[in-house]
Design brief:
Elements lengths: L4 H5 L5 E3 L8 H9 L4 E4 L5 H14 L5 E6 L5 H11 L3 E5 L4 H9 L3 E6 L2 H10 L4 E4 L5 E2 L5 H11 L4 E4 L5 H9 L4 E4 L13 H9 L5 E4 L7 E4 L2 H12 L7 H4 L2 H6 L23 H14 L1 H21 L1
Parallel strand pairs: 1-9, 2-3, 3-4, 4-5, 5-6, 6-8, 8-9
Antiparallel strand pairs: 7-11, 10-11
Helix pairs in contact: 2-3, 3-4, 6-7, 8-13
């Protein structure tokens, strides 16, 4: 495959596991890395001791393989987490919920690849100027915190805006989605929702069952009034939050109700938790293991290669024709 992602990260397959807070622990990350993808431990708001322990677990399950970590930049303890990841010498750091500008040089000096999640082409270009090694273009189909643009519209525009590798995320759960991402110009895929049901994922069974039973219309976006929209599965909590958001005059009044909601879901609170998942939850109908998912996604991505080449050739011809006419 004509993609730089495996070589950049030192992995076999251009498949990155999403950094899902309270979900992506060392066991899941280690399984993905052992399968030849990039497993990612989600730091979230976890204690430093937990992060260190989970990175060690991931490395023990995938000796010699690359292991990444995801940093939520709005975390008040982000400085300590950034320093810890330097000490641990993780292979890759993915970032979200803010700009990693002040950390990029520090991480790169430690030999860590830096890959921000972006929701706009302009932000992707800025991350390239700051020294990011790649970017993850995540569409609003994704679970968890989202932007406004869809993956179909976002990925090719980000690919046109930067010269570093672009990894597509949001709305990818099977070989078809991976193939489509390659045609759009992506050099890898990041997947979260599909990994929620694998045997190495330790979320409560009620969480897995909700994903497996989901239909195409079973996700909902909460938090728009706060400026931090989040996509998850419909349940009593998400419906009540949506109702409260419509009538609230001061969005800050709701902040306490969002806090801890994802962790409650991970621990099995069926009606009081925020079950973050993407619109592709309706496509997830199997449990399986992480290696199965990595293999399917990689094969789908490879299958999209010929179409990607044809699409690139067609686009080049159209642009050349336009320049001649101009």
């Amino acid at each position: 495959m004509d993609t730089r992602v495996p070589g950049l990260f030192g992995i076999e397959h251009p498949v990155i596991q999403g950094g899902m807070a309270w979900v992506a622990d060392g066991r899941l990350a280690g399984a993905v890395s052992a399968a030849g993808g990039l497993g990612v431990v989600a730091c979230g708001a976890a204690p430093l001791s937990w992060i260190e322990e989970q990175v060690a677990i991931a490395r023990s399950l995938a000796p010699g393989a690359a292991v990444g970590a995801n940093v939520m930049l709005m975390n008040p303890d982000v400085e300590s987490i950034a320093d810890l990841l330097v000490r641990l010498r993780v292979d890759v750091v993915t970032t979200g919920a803010g700009s990693p500008a002040r950390f990029i040089e520090r991480w790169k000096e430690a030999g860590i690849k830096v890959v921000p999640v972006v929701a706009q082409a302009a932000l992707a270009a800025r991350m390239e100027r700051l020294g990011a090694d790649a970017v993850i273009a995540e569409g609003c189909e994704a679970g968890g915190h989202i932007g406004e643009m869809s993956t179909m519209a976002l990925v090719p525009q980000v690919c046109d805006a930067v010269s570093i590798p672009v990894i597509a995320a949001g709305g990818i759960a099977d070989a078809r989605g991976a193939a489509a991402a390659r045609v759009l110009g992506a050099e890898g895929v990041q997947v979260g929702t599909r990994f929620l049901t694998v045997e190495e994922c330790r979320v409560a069974e009620v969480y897995k069952d909700k994903v497996l039973r989901a239909k195409d219309s079973d996700t909902i976006v909460t938090g728009r009034v706060t400026g931090h929209p989040v996509r998850g599965l419909k349940n009593a909590w998400s419906r009540s939050m949506k109702s409260l958001e419509r009538g609230v005059s001061d969005p800050h009044e709701l902040e306490g109700m969002y806090a801890g909601s994802l962790r409650r879901a991970v621990e099995g609170d069926a009606e009081g938790g925020s079950f973050m998942a993407g619109q592709v939850a309706g496509l997830v109908k199997a449990r399986g293991c992480a290696a199965d998912v990595v293999s399917e996604l990689s094969e789908g991505f490879a299958a999209g290669e010929a179409s990607a080449c044809a699409a690139a050739s067609l686009l080049a011809g159209v642009r050349e024709g336009g320049e001649r006419r101009g």
